[in-house]
Amino acid sequence: MLAVSAPMRIRTVQIIIASLALLIYGCSKRTPPAAWSSSESVIVEPGVAIGPVHSGMTIRQVMTDLGRPNNGVVPTPPDEGCLVYTNIGLGVWFDSGGRIVSVSVGQPFAGHTKEGIGLGASRADVIKEYGEPTATNTLPNSSFELLRYEQRGIRFSLHDGKIDEIVVAFKPKK
Prior knowledge:
Elements (H helix, E strand, L loop, with lengths): L5 H20 L17 E3 L3 E2 L2 E2 L4 H8 L6 E4 L3 E6 L4 E5 L5 E6 L6 E2 L9 H8 L4 E4 L5 E6 L4 E6 L2 E8 L5
Parallel strand pairs: 1-8
Antiparallel strand pairs: 1-2, 2-3, 4-5, 5-6, 6-7, 7-12, 9-10, 10-11, 11-12
């Protein structure tokens, strides 16, 4: 296992918190926004987008497209936050300037990558399609694992060897 820096540990904890929020509140019966009426057709594009939420968008643009988040804004230190749409399994992470930096999906999201990797896929499926990860993170005495593909801009969170969250990290604008 690779050594993990303090910022990576903080981000891993943030991802776990957002995942738990998606799992805990994911049973909302709200109608999904039109763009997500059937998330089965939503494609996850590493480093670029998850469906209509893409690199370069602002919070305002996301809320115009998807409406107000049904779980509000979850603040994450320092100067960041997350719009949580538990009814569609979507978390939209933004920086202090209001720019989207990453998007995460969990249950009940049914979309997938162009390679067919979606929630419920196995660790072996991910390795077969993407190769060995740039880094992995595990929690001691836990069945959670994070597979990081930094150059591609995608992370897979696994529980008991199955994907339960996908995070697309956007490349910073220069």
